[in-house]
Amino acid sequence: MYVFENPVLQRELLVNLRTNRAFVLLAAYQLLLSGVVLLAWPADTVLDLTTNPQSAKQLVDLFFLGQYVIASLMAPSFAAGAITGEKERLTYEMLLASPLRPGAIVLGKMVASLTHLGMLIMASLPIIVLCLPLGGVSVYEVLAAYTGLIVSVILFGAIGVFCSSYFSRTSSSLVVSYLIILPLVIGAVTAWAALTNAGELRLQIAFLVFPAVALTATILMCSAAAGRMLYPPDVGSEGKEVIDLEKEAEDAVGLVIQPDQFPDRLFAPPKKRQLMPDGTNPVYDKEIHSEIFSQGTLMLRLVIQISMLLAIPLMGIFLFWQIEKCAWFSVYVVVFSMLVGPVFLAGSMTSERERQTLDLLLTTTLTPWQILWGKFIVGFRISAVLTSFLLWPLLLGTALNMTFWSNWEAVIAMFVVVVLVCLVNASVALTSSLFTEKTSIALLTTYSVLLLLYVGPPAAVAVMEILNFSADSIANMKWAGISSPFAALFAIPLDEFLKQEFDEEPANVGNLKLFFGYIIFSLMIVTLATVAMLTRLKARLGLSD
Predict the structure, then answer these.
(1) Is 37 contained in some domain?
(2) Residue at 100 is within a domain
(3) Could you write out the DSSP letters of every residue in 479-521?
(4) Pick from 230, 261, 283: which residue ends a domain?
(5) Is residue 240 part of a domain?
(6) Are 279 and 224 in the same domain?
(7) What is the pLDDT of residue 379?
(8) What angle do CA 30, 34, 40 make, to 5 degrees?
(9) In 124-164, where does DSSP find H-type helix?
(10) Are 154 and 275 within one domain?
């Protein structure tokens, strides 16, 4: 009943693998990987198999690491809604009342959610094998890479299912899964790159050490998720129970959010003790006091603790030790904002449709602008406050490190980039929520658009440099970085800072045109998204059920 006769597994596989999305995703994935290999393939008629080109090795590393990062982003999106999806569809109690064992349910959910991703990974194996004639990489390294990749996908899926058992909403489960997986991905990519010249040690770790640790953690997390289903603490709630924040604060372990104190009240305002004043936007009042925190503050507490735990060592590395790479700390802040920010807005309009209250909202006397800014301000306020918690190390490092004082303009520019990122994230998430029907689809659409805008241009430049494109082509592609905050951060000039610290001319003198281009592009994205949302709300075509 666990595998071959598991009805949960059979049903999930039929639902997931027979959709048009499954075939489109597989085709797009294969075309993308094939295009990279086609561009990298030598133009010579006869290949010289006696050489060991470094470019081929870099291509395979990029090919594998790119797959690893993509898989780490996709695994939670498939698995984080395994159990919360049942709660949102109000079928959780029916599943618990079935004769299936909790372990069979958890195993069926996890295997079904990761099967499609596993198919994508295995389908890419013939493409990577085509790179072997280029030299520089052995078959054993490819097998070790794919072993580590498959085991990592299983581990990330288990993390998603584990988080899904603790939350009532897929969005909360997804963001906590991403924050747990993020340091694991950073550590794995760093270790793989650091052990490039230690091939035998890397093979031993990939084949023996990592699978043992990862599979042990997977078994423990799946057992914990099954235990929560065996003795569920929230039966009868149907995912709708409003948690008492005061009682939750009393039982909480670690960080406690106190809405009546600063700065907690910035993102978790206290309970209302009086009637709504005249002239107040009811959408804003309802969202900030009821909607966001109706399921408790567990997700917020985990987000704050995990993010701060990562920020402290990064502050020491990039703001005191390797201060010439200080932009990397801001990169971490941007990644955090990109993962957390959309969660609070991607379900703003889709949740109204899912609760069948959208028609009621559209027939009120509220104008489209009131509806939009009421929804937008709440999500932007929470995401901006959470992101600002990670900016205090930048201020602290600037104040304590004397070499930063002559570069205060660069520090301000980094703050500007982070603020624009929060604005763009919120705008794209709210637009996706308005133009899609389900919260999960809106969230995935938001992440896809942000990855295309933020990661696409720098990744394209890296591939072109590895493939030895012409300098003019690479320079032209770098201008596509006006859509990427990562490119904008590294375009901020730090000349005087580097001269004082290292007493030499820096290799990267910055690019103010690219930086200001990013500012203009971001403001254009926010403006276009606002116009599109207002137009759709005024027309109301396709919104009503």
Answers:
(1) yes
(2) yes
(3) GGGGG-HHHHHHTS--HHHHHHHHSS--S----HHHHHHHHHH
(4) 230
(5) no
(6) no
(7) 86
(8) 155
(9) 125-129, 139-164
(10) no
pLDDT at 220: 92
The rounded mean pLDDT for the chain is 78
Residue 22 burial (10 A CB sphere; 0-12, 13-18, 19+): middle
The secondary structure of residue 322, as a DSSP letter, is S
Q: Measured between alpha carbons, how far is 215 from 208 in angstroms, rounded to an integer?
A: 11
Does the pLDDT at position 45 exceed 50? no
- 270 and 337 belong to one structural domain: yes
Is the pLDDT assigned to residue 270 strictly greater than 80? Answer: no
- Token pair 């584990």 is found at 162
36 neighbors 467 (Cβ within 8 angstroms): no
Gap between the Cα atoms of 80 and 337, Å rounded: 19
The segment with the largest mean pLDDT, out of 192-201, 314-323, 367-376, 397-406, is 367-376
> What's the CA gap between 329 and 172, in Å, rounded?
25
pLDDT one-digit tens code per residue, 89-114: 777 878 777 888 888 888 888 888 88
> Same domain for 187 and 270?
no
Q: How confident is the model at residue 430 (pLDDT cuts 50, 70, 90)?
A: very high
Same domain, 437 and 534: yes
Residues 366 and 426 reside in one and the same domain: yes
* All residues at 6 or more sequence positions from 42 whose CB lies less than 8 Å from its CB, including other chains: 134
The sign one gets for the Cα dihedral 53, 190, 192, 188 is negative
Which residues have CB under 8 Å from 163's CB, separation 6+? Answer: 76, 80, 173, 174, 176, 177, 180
Decide if pLDDT at 336 tops 80: yes
Asked whether residue 436 carries a pLDDT value surpassing 70, the answer given is yes
The yes-or-no verdict on residue 60 having pLDDT over 80 is no
Which one of 25-34, 70-79, 475-484 scores highest in mean pLDDT? 475-484
- DSSP letter for each residue of 251-302: H--S----TTSTTHHHHSPPPP-SPPPTT--HHHHHIIIIITTTT-SHHHHH
Identify the domain containing residue 126 by its residue range.
Answer: 7-230
User: What type of residue is 386?
Assistant: L
Question: pTM for this one?
Answer: 0.80
What is residue 455's DSSP assignment? T
Are residues 392 and 312 part of one domain? yes
Domain end call among 230, 264, 285: 230
Tell whether 16 is covered by a domain: yes
What are all long-range contacts of 318-321, with beta carbons under 8 Å and residues at least 24 apart?
319/393, 319/394, 319/396, 319/397, 319/398, 319/401, 320/397, 320/400, 320/401
pLDDT at 204: 81
Pair 198, 263 in one domain = no
